[in-house]
Design goal:
This protein folds into two domains: 2-269, Beta Barrel (Porin), CATH 2.40.160.20; 303-477, 60s Ribosomal Protein L30, Chain: A, CATH 3.30.1330.60. Helix content is 14%, strand content 30%. The protein contains six helices and 15 strands. The strands form three sheets. It has an eight-stranded antiparallel beta barrel. It has a four-stranded mixed beta sheet with strand order 12-15-13-14. Strands 10-11 form a two-stranded antiparallel ribbon.
């Protein structure tokens, strides 16, 4: 009976999830569609492509209180509470941002009855007991804070409410003490399949830093055994209830979780909006069509034809939200063809103003830059049109340019310096492979010393879009 109940509880307690971490988009030479999130250009998920840590180790200590039994820890025969001790250690695996599985080992001792077994029995009728236990369980972990979080909420957060439930096997020794002395009342040896138990509860986590979380938990343990309290055999003089029931106890603990892995962020703390990308990648990997634009995107500018106001945008032109090619100086020449982007001029002079000395050539000191994912130096497919424009711009000019890499404020100064240099080097390599002369480029890493948004120090002060803007490579004329 206990085993069947435990198996049923396992089916209800452990959440199943079919989606893992997001894979990274891989270019196939096609112009990326920003409204499909790159779902047409994806690779299968691998350990090399994941962008979040998903393993951690947790440990903690606490106080168990036997609550439902013939001998209890709470308001015992003398109206006092008898406190035991407990400890746990677990290996935790995050499946998605909201679901995980923990393999946990618990050890502890409960104290119950009319008096503490460390003391002498106050009278002949008094009974005290203590129970030493060891348990191994498999717990489902639900991150309610991420599960209920709005997908458009990008604000940083450091508190998270978790729920736990699962089953396992428990071994224990229950000792009973009276005025005649102490005896071993019941012993269940480790770890028998029939000695199943269940536990469920909640925990509140606080993110101390990217590596360590502090958590307070309150668990309710259902032992499934009427002899756990040290009262002896069922229906004994102490276990006088008319039918056998389970002895249950509360276990309040305080512990730490250490997140493992090389990435900056753990999956249980990341933006739940990314779950959409997980599902898109999985569906694409199953060769299922994802209909994003009913009428397609004829000019591949990232704006569906359903609401595109300019259906014949030239390839490589930057567009606004309505699919209209940008014309920064409003002179009738789009930026793609405008030789003087910020100075208005007639169409016949390529967008540059005319003077008596001939056409004016714009002296722009900076080209458009590109942004990077957290803790990554990989050039995203969506950035290739910008880099291709940079190739044309640099080749058509007579000057030389610095390729400058930068990061946000997460990570150490030394690590960010190396990461920014790798970003700059990767962009320089791309430009060289696409025809830019090596003498025109110089790669420089500035780490977190060149923030586009200086107020993002630390990064938790800003929304994620500002931190992403700080993770960039841009061009500057020498």
């Amino acid at each position: 009976m206990k085993l069947s109940l435990a198996i049923a509880a396992l089916a209800l307690a452990i959440p199943t999830a079919s989606y893992a971490q997001d894979s990274t988009a891989v270019s196939k030479g096609e112009y990326p569609n920003t409204f499909s999130s790159g779902s047409a250009n994806v690779s299968p998920f691998t350990n090399q492509s994941k962008r979040f840590n998903d393993w951690s180790i947790s440990a903690g200590v606490g106080v168990p209180l036997l609550q439902s039994a013939d001998l209890t820890s709470i308001k015992n025969g003398n109206g006092k509470n008898l406190f035991g001790y407990s400890a746990y250690v677990s290996i935790d695996k995050a499946i998605t941002h909201a679901f995980g599985i923990n393999l946990q080992y618990d050890r502890g001792e409960t104290r119950q009855g009319w008096f503490n077994t460390k003391d002498a029995a106050p009278d002949a009728a008094a009974v005290g007991a203590r129970t030493q236990y060891d348990a191994i369980s498999l717990l489902g972990d639900i991150n309610f804070s991420n599960l209920l979080r709005r997908v458009d909420n990008h604000s940083p957060y450091r508190w998270a409410l978790h729920g736990y439930a699962g089953i396992g096997t428990i071994a224990y020794r229950a000792y009973q003490k009276t005025s005649k002395g102490q005896t071993l009342a019941t012993e269940i040896k480790p770890f028998q399949l029939g000695s199943m138990f269940m536990q469920a509860g909640a925990g509140l986590k606080f993110k101390i830093n990217r590596r360590i979380d502090l958590e307070g938990r309150l668990m309710y343990v259902v032992t499934g055994d009427d002899e756990f309290d040290g009262g002896g055999m069922a229906y004994s003089d102490i276990n006088k209830r008319s039918e056998q029931v389970s002895d249950n106890f509360f276990n309040a603990t305080l512990g730490l979780s250490v997140k493992l892995g090389k990435h900056e962020s753990h999956l249980m703390w990341h933006d739940p909006l990314q779950e959409i990308y997980y599902k898109l990648d999985v569906l694409a990997n199953k060769n299922q069509d994802i209909e994003v634009c009913k009428k397609g995107d004829a000019d591949n500018d990232g704006v569906c034809d359903d609401w595109d106001r300019q259906l014949d945008t030239p390839a490589g032109a930057r567009v606004d939200g309505a699919g209209v090619a940008l014309d920064t100086d409003l002179d009738g020449v789009i930026d793609l063809y405008d030789k003087c982007v910020t100075v208005p001029g007639p169409v016949e002079n390529n967008g540059c103003p005319t003077t008596t000395t001939g056409p004016v050539v714009e002296t722009e000191t900076k080209l458009e830059g590109i942004e990077f994912d957290l803790n990554s130096d990989r050039i995203l497919p969506s950035n290739t049109p910008i880099l291709n424009n940079a190739v044309n711009y640099i080749n058509s000019s007579n000057g030389a340019y610095n390729v400058i890499g930068a990061t946000d404020t997460r990570g150490t100064d030394a690590y960010n310096q190396k990461l920014s240099q790798r970003r700059a080097n990767n962009v320089k390599s791309y430009l060289l492979k696409n025809g830019v002369q090596s003498g025109k480029l110089n790669a420089i890493g500035k780490g977190e010393k060149d923030l586009k948004y200086p107020e993002c120090e630390p990064a938790t002060k800003c929304p994620e879009w500002k931190n992403r803007a700080n993770r960039r490579v841009y061009f500057e004329a020498k």
